[in-house]
Structure formats: structure tokens, C-alpha cells
């Protein structure tokens, strides 16, 4: 991953506003919701972080860790969320490195397992994730897949 730099917002909080705008652009969740989660993390109110992969001064990819990612299985926490890599940076290992960093940071704090909600099949398995169950999403009439990383 030459030319890329993986950070957490805890290490470089100056990226908070740009990161919140970027995640909002990718997922359509209100920008303020991202800012609220990021600020709680930066104030030490939660151990759940936010991670970015930077290509120079551009965000190439990112993800966050939250309590629940809009599904009804509130007993399954924490959840990785908003995993995204810009199309021109895909197939270079960015998502895998972001996932590994978030899981390692959580594990170092004694937090495991970790979950994520997705409709993708075959992607997360490459990075040590396993299908766990189906879950009803709070904002959709259909169920999505929940994966676990132990």
C-alpha cells in the first residue's frame, strides 16, 4: 500500500469534519450523525473509533465503529459501519487493512467479537469474517446479513 497512510481520528482529529462530510456523501446518513459519533469518540465517551486511509490529502477509504448499524439485533455490538473505498483505490488492500486495524484496536481494549451488517457475499470472508445471522434492518423491509469477527 505504498503512498497510503492509515489513521484513526483519535490520532489525527483534524480530519473529523472532512471525514463526516465524506461518509455522508457515500452513505447518505446525515453529516451531523457522523460528527456526533466522532465527537463522542474524541471526547473518550466511547471506545469505538473512526478510521481513514489517506492518499496524500484525499480520503481513499474509511470505516467506523458504532454500537448498532441500523438493525434490530441490538444484542450484537459493536458494529463496523460505513466501510467504503473510493472506486479508483479498490483492489489494493485498503478495506482489508482498515478492517484489520479496527478489529485489532478493539481487541486491544478487550472488545470482541465485532459485527458488521452487509449485503455483500464473499468479500468480508477474505478478511476473517464469517456469516453469523440475518437481521431485520430498521429502515428497510428486507433482512441483511450480519457477519462476525471473533
UniProtKB/TrEMBL annotation:
InterPro entries listed in its UniProt record: Acyl_CoA_acyltransferase, GNAT_dom
Residues annotated as domain N-acetyltransferase: 4-150
Pfam family, one: Acetyltransf_9
Gene3D superfamilies hit by this protein: 3.40.630.30
Highest rank taxon of the organism: Bacteria
GO terms assigned for molecular function: acyltransferase activity, transferring groups other than amino-acyl groups
Protein name in the entry: GNAT family N-acetyltransferase
Amino acid at each position: 500500500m505504498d503512498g497510503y497512510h492509515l489513521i484513526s481520528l483519535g490520532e489525527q482529529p483534524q480530519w473529523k469534519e472532512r471525514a463526516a462530510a465524506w461518509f455522508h456523501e457515500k452513505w447518505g446518513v446525515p453529516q451531523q450523525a457522523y460528527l456526533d459519533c466522532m465527537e463522542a469518540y474524541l471526547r473518550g465517551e466511547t471506545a469505538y473509533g473512526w478510521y481513514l486511509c489517506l492518499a496524500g490529502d484525499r480520503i481513499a477509504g474509511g470505516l467506523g465503529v458504532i454500537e448498532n448499524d441500523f438493525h434490530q439485533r441490538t444484542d450484537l455490538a459493536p458494529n463496523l459501519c460505513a466501510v467504503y473505498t473510493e472506486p479508483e483505490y479498490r483492489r489494493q488492500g485498503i478495506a482489508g487493512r482498515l478492517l484489520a486495524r479496527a478489529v485489532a484496536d478493539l481487541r486491544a481494549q478487550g472488545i470482541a467479537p465485532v459485527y458488521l451488517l452487509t449485503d455483500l457475499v464473499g468479500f468480508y470472508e477474505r478478511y476473517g469474517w464469517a456469516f453469523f445471522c440475518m437481521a431485520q434492518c430498521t429502515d428497510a423491509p428486507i433482512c441483511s446479513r450480519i457477519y462476525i469477527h471473533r
